[in-house]
């Protein structure tokens, strides 16, 4: 029964056009959301490429080009930064910081449109939590994916021109 559910979860996520919430999966299989969380953990342990956002789980496809950008900016530039990336055809896969004590702290984002940017900003505004970049004085990294290296070059040049890219 459980292996059958795991296989079905993979198929659902592979066919989904947007993230699927744990609650939706729990209702589909008539189990608790906690059971779904455990199932997802098992699948990840088996190297099934599943990522999560605050909107749910999604299957990660690896046919896109990826690049990590180190950036630094204030809260008022979050929307501008994310718009620059998605408007040029990029997807913000995640955000992470490198903390001297805690090590790397990462959160999946999967932001690929202005609608996703608006939802993310709304979630941050309505939350008691603050953006992860606050942990490291606004320095943070984004893994950005795109269809080709040219698009990543354009995004990198734009972030640099706008003063958000950090050169080491």
Features:
168 residues, alpha+beta, Arc Repressor Mutant, subunit A, Histidine-containing Protein, Chain: A, 2 domains, two-stranded antiparallel ribbon, 6 helices
Set down the secondary structure blueprint.
Blueprint: H1 2-15, H2 22-29, H3 33-45, E1 50-53, E2 56-59, E3 65-72, H4 78-87, E4 91-99, E5 103-111, H5 114-125, E6 139-146, H6 149-161
Antiparallel strand pairs: 1-2, 3-6, 4-5, 4-6
Task: Walk me through the structure.
By secondary structure, this protein is an alpha+beta fold. It folds into two domains: 2-59, Arc Repressor Mutant, subunit A, CATH 1.10.10; 65-161, Histidine-containing Protein, Chain: A, CATH 3.30.1340. The chain contains six helices and six strands; from the N terminus they run H-H-H-E-E-E-H-E-E-H-E-H. It has a four-stranded antiparallel sheet with strand order 3-6-4-5, covered by helices on one side. A two-stranded antiparallel sheet has the order 1-2. Strand 1 and strand 2 (56-59) form a beta hairpin. The longest helix is centred in the N-terminal third of the chain and has 14 residues, at 2-15. The radius of gyration is 17 Å and the shape is globular. The N and C termini lie far apart (51 Å). The model has no long low-confidence stretch (mean pLDDT 91).
